[in-house]
Amino acid sequence: MGGKMNALEKLQLIKSGKLKAVDNISGFLEVIEKDNFKGKKINAVLVINNNAIADAKAVDEKIKSGKKIGRLGGLGIIIKANICVKGLECNCASLTLKDWIAGYNATVIEKIKKEDGIILGMANMDEFACGGSGETSAFGPTKNPVQLDLIPGGTSSGSAASVAAGFCDLALGSDTGGSIRNPASHCGVVGIKPSYGFVSRYGLVDMAMSFDQIGVIGKDIESTGLLLDVIKGYDEKDPTTYKRNDIKIQNPGKIVIGVIKPLAKLDVQSLIDKKIKDAVEKYKWQKKEIEIKYIDAAVQTYYPIVYTEVFSGTRKFDGRRFGKKIEDVAGPELLRRILGGSEITKAEYEGRYYKKALEVKEIIKQEFEKAFEKIDCIIIPTCPGLPWKIGGSMSVEEIYAYDALTIPANLAEICALTMPAGKINEVPVGLQIMCAKGNEGKLFSIAREIEKL
Amino acid sequence: MASELMWRRLSELEKKEIEKKAKKVMEDFAKTLEKLPARKEGIVEREVFEREENNLFESDKDFRMIMLENAPKKEDNCIIGEKGAWVEK
Q1: Quick one: closest CA in B to A321, which residue?
Q2: Pairwise CB contact (< 8 Å): A320 & B6
Q3: Which residue in chain A has the smallest CA separation from B30?
Q4: A239 contacts chain B (CB < 8 A)
Q5: How many Å apart are CA B30 and CA B15, to the nearest integer?
Q6: Which residues contact A402 (CB under 8 A, 6 or more apart)?
Q7: How confident is the prediction for chain A on average, in pLDDT?
Q8: Using the beta-carbon criterion (under 8 Å), do A335 and B26 form an inter-chain contact?
Q9: Is A330 an interface residue toward B (CB < 8 Å)?
Q10: In a designed cystine with A196, which of A4, A382, A413, B24 is the match (CB 3.0 to 4.6 A)?
């Protein structure tokens, strides 16, 4: 039953009894066995939930007995390995947390279970969400299902690859500087980073608390919106969250699109420009060139904050309560952030790195707020280029610069979504739409119109 | 040049190189930031920043059992943390 069907269409079949939830789930488990662990060895899934079939049977029983089933009834969902699912190994793709079993459910998992979604397993990722290519996992890189020798992007590499490979209906990832949008773009699927505070992070192993958000990866706009709507909202366990209205995907009316000077390689930018042109012509939308001051310094603003918060957040992994001491078993990128964070948080540097970066972040956030007074959305490429070959030679500076188009949304705390814009040499290219903080409904509505082009 | 991303076990020499590189990257970034304006509104510096522990969110009965199973060293109902073992030597 795999991944051919839209999740919403499948939901209707399950609710009507034409498709059994157990067949949906067992179909996914077969494909995972065939292409993840054997065959193509995509390595997107690290852990299988052995209760998935039993959970699906319970949904079928509910339907059979005429009980109302939840909004995700029988859909198969894969979870990034930094989100706690009680009883499953939540290893953050690290040796530090290898064999660590989560003792409780993250709030997003409680919400999914309440709506009868089925957790299929835990997805591979960059180690502790440090990376950007899907190569830094201690359990081996994830392959891009579209072209197996290419990186899938990261850090939610396994979540995006799982959706693209047909291992699940939907997946959860986390996005700190583009970690949902980047892999979704490279794998040719849809990915949403919600506004800061839109989704509870209780039960997420943090990477950088100033930016982390849990979001959704799916094959199409409406299914992705459905899962985000389920997991959104205020949670007393995460004080950054706030109450939100339901996400309504509807005709967005006349839209003013903000465009920024070309930011990506020529061929990538051309694809995005063509989509904008088509939308303007078909829907009579307007296009307006805008300038976001200091956006060129987004990378330099982001990393000092991230280094500091990675250092701070990993102090608990000292080898006492869980697994191994992190500095002893970390890979290069995670260790770089820990050691760099340790250095720049020394008292002698007070104000030079973390505090200064936070102050510049506020300026960039304000620049976006000013821009959204005149426009409805900003459309730019998701990534500046195409994915490289796994194991390719990239310097640290090149890798960090690759996040330049996704980081601004995290700095500004706004919502941003990537969706397929087309292909170059059979490799998917993502189009990124950004809307003001809390405007997820408008974001999905605009995206659905573009999806129809 | 080998990939600077791929996970691998690191030698002490590599760790030193990584530390040097991290410092250089941060130094370069700080130079860019120095030239930019800053906005202090929205940043709150708290004098009192330690939260009070309470029992607001009680875990279920399995939590303690799973937590103990996760611990590398334990005895009966206690996790053993050897004094000083986690400190940098």
Answers
A1: B71
A2: no
A3: A353
A4: no
A5: 22
A6: A132, A182, A383, A384, A385, A394
A7: 96
A8: no
A9: yes
A10: A413
Chain centroid, CA B63 distance in Å: 23
What mean pLDDT do residues A406-413 have? 98
C-beta contacts of A276-285 below 8 A and 24+ residues apart:
A276/A379, A278/A453, A279/A255, A279/A449, A279/A450, A279/A453, A282/A453, A283/A254, A283/A255, A283/A449, A284/A254, A285/A254, A285/A255, A285/A256, A285/A257
| Phi/psi at A143 (5° precision) | -95, 150
Q: List chain B residues with CB under 8 Å of A352.
A: 30
pLDDT tens digits for A49-82? 999 999 999 999 999 999 999 999 999 999 999 9
What pTM, to 2 d.p., does this model score?
A: 0.95
pLDDT tens by residue, A326-374: 999 999 999 999 999 999 999 888 878 999 999 999 999 999 999 999 9
Question: Are A86 and B6 a contacting pair at CB < 8 A?
Answer: no
Query: Which residues from B are below 8 Å from A135, CB to CB?
Result: 3, 5-7
All domains in chain A, ordered by first residue: 7-231 (3.90.1300.10), 256-297+354-451 (3.90.1300.10)
Domain ranges for chain B, please list them.
58-82
| N residues, chain A | 453
Write out chain B residues lying below 8 Å of A328, CB-based.
Answer: none
Give how far B17 is from chain A: nearest CA, Å. 9
Q: Which DSSP state fits B81?
A: -
Q: pLDDT category, B42, cuts 50, 70, 90?
A: confident
